[in-house]
Amino acid sequence: MRCGDFRVSYASDESIFETHIPIIALLAFLGVLALVPLVATTYWLDVLNRIGIAIIGAIGLNILIGFTGQISIGHAAFLAVGAYTTAILEGKAGLPFWLAIPLAAVVTSVFGLVFGVPSLRLKGLYLAIATLAAHFITTYGIIHWERMTNGVLGFNVPTATLFGYPLDADARIFYPIFALVIPAVFFAKNLFRTKVGRAFIAIRDRAVAAEVIGVSVYRYKLLAFVISSFYAGVAGGLMAHQSRIVFPDAFSLLVAIDYLAMIIIGGLGSILGSIYGAVFMTLLPEVLKLSATSLTGLYPNAFGLIASARDIVFGLAIIFFLMYEPQGLARIWLRFRSYWKLWPYAY
Amino acid sequence: MRRIAQLVVLSVMFGLLVLSVSAMSAAAQTIKIGNLVDLTGPTSDQGKDIAQGRIDAVQYINEKGGVNGKKLELVSVEYGYQPPRAVAAYKKFVEDDKVLLVLGYGTPDTEALRPFITKDKVPYISGSYSGHLTDPKMTPYNFPGGIDYTSQIRIFINWVKEGWKDTSRKPKVAFIFADNAYGRAPIEAGRAYAKDAGVDLVDEEVIPTTLTDATSQLLTMKTKDPDFAYINTNTQWVPVVLKDSYKLGLKTKYVVNNYGIDERTPALAREAAEGVYGIQDVAYWGENVPGMKTLMEWHQKHHPNDVHASPYMRGWLWTIMAAEAIKRAGPNPTGESVKRALETFKEWDTWGITPPFTYTNEDHRPTTRARLVVIKEGKVVPVREVSVERDMKWIGK
Fold this sequence. Notes:
- The complex is a heterodimer.
- By secondary structure, chain A is mainly alpha-helical.
- Helix content of chain A is 74%, strand content 2%.
- Chain A has a domain at 41-265.
- Chain A is built from 15 helices and four strands.
- In chain A, helix 5 packs across helix 11 (217-243) and helix 8 (170-191) runs antiparallel to helix 11 (217-243).
- Chain A is globular and about 60 Å long.
- Chain B has a seven-stranded mixed beta sheet with strand order 7-6-8-9-10-11-12, with helices on both faces. In chain B, strands 2-1-3-4-5 form a five-stranded parallel beta sheet, sandwiched between helices.
- The longest helix of chain B has 24 residues, at 2-25.
């Protein structure tokens, strides 16, 4: 039994996993996950795919808000840019999937760079409002640039092909999504073990102090926006393919709020927390919906009642987390784990 | 405190689990029908009643012994008027639930789903009456559940022309429509038809899907001074336009399409609603039509305290229509046979809820007849029946 945290070499100090067990568990989990499309129904695959996309998007937002401390409610706009760029590149310019997604991510990064500029002068709530402007400007642009975006009507995204396979079913698109989730998680995890990541954290904790010790606040704030929107671009591009249609209302302010809720519930400044939050926020409405559907047999009105309960439950969950566990699900899991690690002889 | 919270969470999760398991085991020898509704989005004013109507009608049909001895089962999904969520729901209907047909909902989602519906051969009866869904050459499996928006806008223009006595100038009209696929659906055809009919279309005002104020749009419209304006949005939002127009003292006469006006409008818009005309596809709650007795009895028996408006009738209508088609398709219905069965509807009596429906393999406009109503002293009163020809020129437009 482990009774302490002993790191006796630099290598062990730098390792992500303390023992081999989590690595094996993780690989086993990924192995099982890879088999899921063979058995799962379309419905659950759809949910899983949305979880995968939400994970990428939430990590992106957490890098910006949780690690760098730059509040943004423009995340839906960045997702929209990613989705529309992918859809336009593939639908109108005929680029292949593997090229369109990274290109869309780059375009979104540039977007993030531009809308990150106010962060150099603004902080906290003021920055939030500036990013809100980014949201509205983007939405306006999408709705009115009809030649490219088809305005409020949106348009269908052509089926992509990858290695000769058409990504026309949820079981097919599942693999590219999760193939991107894994590097997204590892890049983010490692980012905060590098100079750049530490600079982000320093800026979050105290921008002035960071500046004093030689962190270029100007550079790193913008870099945080760029990385964050790169993630959003990837997530948006995948979203376009997963939902098969790009539509301006799908990127409403509520989506940005949903993402904020994900990282708050999951845990600000935690990569694992982003994952938990994405899973939680995507699953919750589905669980509510399922319970509503099964209740309609017994009580026909339940369907309508529970459909509107979603937002209430979200609201309550956010209040609950802010009050009882501001560090989110990630922290709850940590506490749970450390409790059982030493059970029953806690000391 | 923490323990109690844990207990509550655990028991709720357990309850949900039990419920979902019990629901899964209930399905056997049933015909599944997809039921897509908006209960939380901008058209929830329609959605709540439509969902209720569909659920009630299915229960009614099942109590009468089902269709060809099989019970109907609704698979319901709420989608908040969001096309991407409708696509996800549709995938679930078709691939997981293997539904025989889908009772769809709005225009943005139904239009987005067109290619999938055609590919999967799933009959799709939609609450959307978009003209773009009426041409079987383009959308063979789409069946709009009422008089299409294009026919309605043609009715409006014809009505304006017929009533116009001033020979010194042409009548001036304007279109006010919601900024979504539903609002925009008939506008292009409307422009062309106005030109053909010799009516001056002087202004078009786009209003947001959810609306709190229409003053700026109406002020622009005021400068163009149209005699008549056609409003194409939802019941929830039409009163906003009417009230603002009343406040600004516009002289324009309004005609509202079928989803924009119903028995709730007078209460919502009060004096601003006076003299506003509407085109209506279905009978009102409690009106003296053959099917109403069944509906009233059902209502008395199951939920006497609810209040219903015309969307409730639409919920029933589309469900009995689906049931009739399944019945006609015989003991082993498929998507294709149900589609063919729907195309055998000839002057089919919709319990008197609407004018009789006719679908053919060349024309999916169920009817081109509707009612003109007007709001008088806080009541919606029918004026007369209105109709246009089934002109093939306007199909699919």
